[in-house]
Specification:
alpha/beta, 9-stranded mixed β-sheet, 4-stranded antiparallel β-sheet, 13 helices, globular, binds glyoxylic acid, binds manganese (II) ion
């Protein structure tokens, strides 16, 4: 039942940010580690989608799922010039609770704040939840926004597999979504006048500046490369060291080389995911599959860093008598967020008495992908330790609430009278 007033306004704020947060907190959380495992198109993902849809319905927002599995909840008049806010609800393995989820909960809470003020948007305000932002299940980060923007081919996306060999197409179908229709959505993009994603800060720049909220300047170029080292399985107790073709050795020296290259080039390089096959304690592995995540302040430095790591991997593969294949799985060029939109947002925040330092970041975001197509900006909420992609990720409630107030002020400005 709708409790919107006859003028079409949404109902009064049904919950506080803290209430919203409490509800969302338990979904997809691992009891043992305290980290989140909200992988796309799994039951935890469905539970997140159900939660969001229910919250949107409570506010009389009309929710739709686009062809790519992204959710859009509409507030105000339908039509062009939509002001989009939101983020993602999926997580990395044992991720923190704030990465993505804070932007979604803050968007709902901002609508509540604006409703309390009896604000009604003149342009649509749309709350978006992008799918598979982390690429934790299918390997390509920001998959939902990349598909929307035409930055990844639908056929290639459908064929992506998870670690169990399930394709994206199969996973979507199993969750009741038709994978045949994924792909670019020009009309949706044309209808967007601005995108503002609020996100927990990843890094620790705001704490020393004594600021609860910052705005994004840009995103470092970054990418993912899969390295397959293939050797020969053998007996750990009988195969002589000199006779072995051990892919683990080639991999191990590549990890060290990556650290050295990153240090030398002032870049970042991480091997955070590795699969040894067949993964037996008493056997030389037959293969090691490893994923390199590399990021740098500019594209030339990123390329040099990755080339250096790749050469080191080739050299150690030769030395160990194993073969190596390297494949780039995703790449995001340097992102510069829209300066005009950023200045406008900073003006709004200043008028609300908030200082908003401008920060670069090495973390990828859907707003970064969509910045190539629509005016985009980001708000960061202070992270006192800077830790992210970890159960230790944190933001204080007071800072989250400051983020909600900041987002509400920005939406009021962007979707209010021209
Ligand atoms: C997303 O969080 C990324 O930067 O990997
Ligand atoms: Mn993340
Ligand atoms: Mn995120």
């Amino acid at each position: 039942m709708s409790n919107a007033d006859p003028g079409g306004r949404s109902p009064k704020a049904p919950t506080t940010f803290a209430d919203l947060w409490r509800e969302l907190e338990s979904i997809g959380r691992d009891q043992l580690t305290g980290g989140y495992r909200r992988y796309s198109w799994t039951p935890a993902d469905t539970a997140c989608r159900t939660w969001f849809t229910r919250q949107a319905a409570k506010r009389d927002l009309a929710v739709e799922t686009d062809h790519n599995g992204n959710l859009w909840a509409w507030w105000g008049p339908r039509g062009p010039g939509a002001v989009v806010t939101g983020s993602h609800l999926d997580s990395v393995p044992d991720g923190g609770g704030f990465d993505g989820a804070l932007g979604v909960a803050a968007a709902l809470a901002a609508v509540d704040l604006l409703n309390e003020k009896a604000f009604y948007p003149e342009r649509p305000v749309v709350l978006a939840v992008f799918t598979e932002e982390e690429g934790a299940r299918f390997g390509v980060s920001c998959l939902g926004s990349r598909l929307l923007a035409g930055a990844v081919q639908p056929d290639a996306a459908r064929a992506l597999t998870d670690d169990q060999g399930v394709t994206l197409a199969e996973a979507m179908r199993a969750a009741g979504h038709d994978p045949a229709r994924i792909g670019p959505d020009e009309r949706r993009l044309e209808g967007i006048s601005a995108l503002v994603e609020l996100h927990v800060e990843q890094g620790r720049a705001l704490a020393p500046l004594d600021a609860a909220v910052g705005v994004a300047e840009g995103i470092w170029p970054h990418g993912r490369w899969r390295l397959d080292f293939t050797g020969r399985a053998d007996h750990a107790g009988t195969a002589q060291l000199a006779d072995r073709r051990d892919p683990m050795l080639a991999y191990a020296s590549t990890v060290l080389a990556a650290r050295q290259a990153a240090t030398a080039h002032r870049a970042l390089a991480t091997f955070g995911k590795v699969i040894a096959e067949p993964n037996g304690t008493n056997a030389v592995p037959s293969a090691v599959r490893a994923w390199l995540d590399a990021r740098a302040p500019d594209e030339a430095v990123l390329e040099t860093t990755v080339t250096t790591i790749r050469s080191a991997a080739e050299k150690s593969a030769r030395e160990q008598g194993v073969t190596l294949s390297v494949r780039q799985e995703s790449y995001t060029p340097l992102v510069r967020f829209d300066e005009k939109l950023r200045d406008r947002i900073r003006g709004v925040l200043a008028a609300a008495g908030m200082t908003s330092p401008v920060l670069p970041t090495g973390a990828g975001h859907d707003a970064g992908i969509l910045a190539a197509r629509v005016p985009a900006a980001m708000l960061f909420v202070r992270n006192p330790t800077g830790i992210s992609h970890s159960p230790a990720e944190h933001a204080d409630l007071a800072d989250c609430e400051a983020g909600v107030r900041a987002l509400a002020a920005v939406l009021e400005d962007l979707a209010g009278p021209a």
